[in-house]
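TL;DR need structure tokens for one chain.
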Amino acid sequence: MSLKVEGVPYIGLDHLIAGEDIEVFIHVLKCNFKIDKEQLKKDLIFYFSIKKIIEKSTILDVNKVLNFVQNAVDKMEEKLEKNSISF
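>> reply
TL;DR here they are.
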């Protein structure tokens, strides 16, 4: 289904959740807002993929798990940056 808004490409939510059309979505946003492209891309992929999986597990607190995963990712990025600098 396309809403056919002139000058704006249709991007289905199912495409964003699947990781498709993220670049197109970011391009549309950049034309209208000041955004950090890389951070937005990272956030879209992270929240659409991991959050969807966790929400299917009713015994887990989604926010706690997402915070735990985000902290783990941040720590891993820090370690990778330190290791790449030391080479």
